[in-house]
């Protein structure tokens, strides 16, 4: 059982850390309030103390201090967890916001980023050297949370997930050691952090593989009226069957404040010139959008395009949903009807969206699911319900609606010909889109669950890191 930090322990901590590590309590007023603020208002918790280190060794001190005294520890990178997993009520909040440096090794094309960096930091630093890597589609998201859980992005069709592009990392584990991990160093921990990293420590530095990206890309939102939905899904299925990994799309149900009714937005991406992009998306454009905002732009601008639908504030909940590889149009129509009804009946949910991600899966699925902890490979597509509201009395009711959609999509997968309870190795929901309480009896890491339990016993038997898709050590896993 993890405990709140006491006033005496805060004094003790202050005497142990370097002067470069700043500590903040409620007595610090506005500065403290800024540090406990999160992307979602409902994820804000009153930390007993917030520590803001700038050195890796200081992170190690903070982790060991919390572990030795059984103090609840939360790690904040970008603070986007809607389930409150980057926050603590009364415990120690380890805030990485002052550790955002990014440097580029042009010889190896490696992008070395500190654990508190945002995706904008990575995208901007890399593009200056003609490079890019797979990253978050909202660029004010922290790199840590996304990377440790898998990480889909616009370049996933070409290069796989973020975890497929991590070549090394520096990790502070529960006993306070700072370990370098890679295929050659602490390889078992390297295996674990790529998909289940939230359970194993604080990653203070990532090394990503960069890829040549000197050309501009074609990207933007294409808006359709709802009557085009079936045709849009059919078209996106055809595009995915083409095998062109340069193209991708995210299909979104939304209620723009200027629109008289819910619309279907297809956010498109093509890693090539405009002529090739327009040829690739011709079938989609031929459906007659009411607005087409897609255009050529530098790659580092792309991951800012969806920021407008992911602003800070208000109450939020993210729910993972999974779809079959070939998405059934009639089923998507059913989900749209559910969306229209709930957002129509409850105007406080008007900012809510449902998204479905269409990336070429060949590269992703060329890597064996046992190659690392990440357990979302297979003939499936990730989707997300992004709930947003203001009335705190509706928290559970709104989350329950999201879980209803989650369960409906899960059952659709289970009923599909691709799924077999005997042979399916994947987890059915993408871990980065899960909140505490969402998993319906399933293991969040699929076939890799048992090995992770063994490694949890080795690296964190006291469960210092337990907030995101928690893994029980081996002794509990056997029960």
Automatic annotation (TrEMBL):
<comment type="similarity">
    <text>Belongs to the oxygen-dependent FAD-linked oxidoreductase family.</text>
</comment>
<dbReference type="InterPro" id="IPR050416">
    <property type="entry name" value="FAD-linked_Oxidoreductase"/>
</dbReference>
<dbReference type="GO" id="GO:0071949">
    <property type="term" value="F:FAD binding"/>
</dbReference>
<feature type="domain" description="FAD-binding PCMH-type">
    <location>
        <begin position="42"/>
        <end position="213"/>
    </location>
</feature>
<protein>
    <submittedName>
        <fullName>FAD-binding domain-containing protein</fullName>
    </submittedName>
</protein>
<keyword id="KW-0560">Oxidoreductase</keyword>
<dbReference type="InterPro" id="IPR016166">
    <property type="entry name" value="FAD-bd_PCMH"/>
</dbReference>
<dbReference type="Pfam" id="PF01565">
    <property type="entry name" value="FAD_binding_4"/>
</dbReference>
<keyword id="KW-0274">FAD</keyword>
<keyword id="KW-0285">Flavoprotein</keyword>
<dbReference type="InterPro" id="IPR006094">
    <property type="entry name" value="Oxid_FAD_bind_N"/>
</dbReference>
<dbReference type="GO" id="GO:0016491">
    <property type="term" value="F:oxidoreductase activity"/>
</dbReference>
<dbReference type="InterPro" id="IPR016167">
    <property type="entry name" value="FAD-bd_PCMH_sub1"/>
</dbReference>
<dbReference type="InterPro" id="IPR036318">
    <property type="entry name" value="FAD-bd_PCMH-like_sf"/>
</dbReference>
<dbReference type="InterPro" id="IPR016169">
    <property type="entry name" value="FAD-bd_PCMH_sub2"/>
</dbReference>
């Amino acid at each position: 059982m993890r405990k709140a930090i006491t006033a005496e322990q805060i004094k003790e901590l202050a005497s142990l850390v370097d002067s470069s590590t700043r500590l903040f309590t409620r007595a610090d007023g506005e500065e403290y309030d800024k540090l406990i603020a999160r992307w979602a208002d409902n994820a804000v918790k009153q930390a007993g103390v917030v520590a803001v280190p700038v050195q890796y060794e200081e992170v190690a001190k903070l982790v060991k201090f919390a572990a030795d005294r059984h103090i609840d520890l939360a790690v904040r990178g970008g603070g986007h967890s809607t389930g409150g997993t980057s926050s603590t009520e009364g415990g120690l909040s380890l805030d990485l916001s002052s550790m955002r440096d990014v440097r580029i090794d042009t010889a190896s094309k490696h992008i070395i980023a500190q654990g508190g960096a945002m995706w904008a930091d990575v995208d901007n630093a890399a593009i200056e050297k003609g490079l890019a890597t797979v990253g978050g589609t909202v660029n004010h998201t922290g790199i840590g949370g996304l990377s440790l859980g898998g990480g889909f992005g616009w370049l996933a069709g070409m290069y796989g997930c973020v975890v497929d592009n991590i070549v090394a990392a520096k990790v502070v584990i529960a006993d306070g050691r700072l370990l370098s991990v890679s295929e050659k160093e602490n390889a078992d921990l390297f295996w674990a952090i790529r998909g289940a990293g939230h359970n194993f420590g604080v990653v203070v530095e990532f090394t990503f593989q960069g890829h040549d990206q000197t050309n501009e890309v074609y990207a933007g939102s294409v808006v359709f009226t709802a009557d085009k939905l079936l045709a849009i899904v059919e078209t996106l299925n055809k595009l995915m069957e083409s095998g062109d990994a340069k193209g991708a799309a995210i299909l979104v149900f939304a209620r723009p404040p200027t629109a008289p009714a819910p619309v279907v937005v297809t956010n498109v991406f093509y890693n090539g010139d405009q002529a090739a992009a327009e040829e690739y998306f011709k079938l989609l454009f031929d459906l007659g959008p009411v607005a087409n905002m897609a255009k050529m732009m530098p790659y580092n601008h792309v991951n800012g395009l969806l920021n407008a639908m992911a602003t800070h504030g208000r109450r939020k909940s993210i729910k993972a949903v999974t779809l079959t590889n070939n998405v059934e149009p009639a089923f998507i129509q059913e989900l749209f009807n559910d969306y229209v009804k709930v957002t129509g009946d409850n105007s406080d949910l008007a900012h809510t969206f449902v998204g479905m991600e269409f990336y070429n899966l060949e590269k992703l699925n060329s890597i064996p699911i046992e190659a690392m902890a990440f357990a979302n490979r297979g003939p499936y597509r990730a989707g997300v319900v992004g709930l947003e509201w203001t009335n705190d009395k509706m928290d559970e009711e709104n989350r329950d609606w999201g879980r209803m959609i989650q369960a409906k999509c899960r059952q659709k997968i289970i009923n599909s010909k691709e799924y077999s309870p005997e042979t399916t190795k994947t987890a059915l929901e993408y871990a980065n889109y899960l909140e505490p309480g969402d998993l319906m009896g399933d293991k969040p890491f699929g076939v890799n669950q048992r090995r992770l339990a063994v490694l949890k016993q080795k690296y964190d038997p006291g469960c210092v890191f337990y907030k995101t898709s928690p893994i029980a050590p081996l002794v509990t896993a056997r029960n």
